[in-house]
Amino acid sequence: RSNPTVALYLPHEPHSREDTVAMLAKYVGQSALSEPGQWLDLAVELDGAGVIGEVVLKWDADDQELGELGFAFHPSVKGTGIATEAATAVLRLAFEQFGWHRVIGICNILNLRSSALMERLGMRREAVFRESEWFKGRWATVSHYAMLQYEWRARYGDAASH
After folding, report:
1. Measured distance between the N- and C-terminal CA atoms of the chain, rounded to whole angstroms
2. Rounded Cα gap, residues 22 and 83, in angstroms
3. 81 within 8 A of 57, measured Cβ to Cβ
4. Residue 97 DSSP symbol
5. What share of the chain is helix, strand, coil (3-state, %, to 5)?
6. How far, in Å, CA of 33 to CA of 106, rounded?
7. Do β-strands 39-46 and 50-59 pair in parallel, antiparallel, or remain unpaired?
8. What is the mean pLDDT of each run of 10 residues along the chain (162 residues)?
């Protein structure tokens, strides 16, 4: 979150060390989703490199069968498959552990890496909302992606249980 390239599409400016400490204090005690509206923020670690990203799963506050996927990764892991593997694991939790019906992902249309990751996961782009969000001092266009539980099963089938 401190890397300017990563923070470009996050809802905050690059984090200072103090920002990171405060964020970790908020999330470190939560190891499960226990009620709608909560976020589960999971660190992605690489042997010898430490934390190289995070994957987030949000349980929808209004509908217990819906959730949202989020993620951020250091640019150095581009092309390694690590982001795909981590996001797939979180989708597995959403669909197989929690039994959710639908998981969405939202990203700035300019964030080509996030769009590509969601498409690799099998999520489909459902909508593009032109200049729909005020983001860092300007209007942003965002893409909405989604996957349904039966789409997860059709795509990952038996491989999802390994």
Report:
1. 31
2. 24
3. no
4. I
5. 35, 35, 30
6. 20
7. antiparallel
8. 70 69 68 84 84 91 96 89 96 95 96 95 97 93 97 80 45
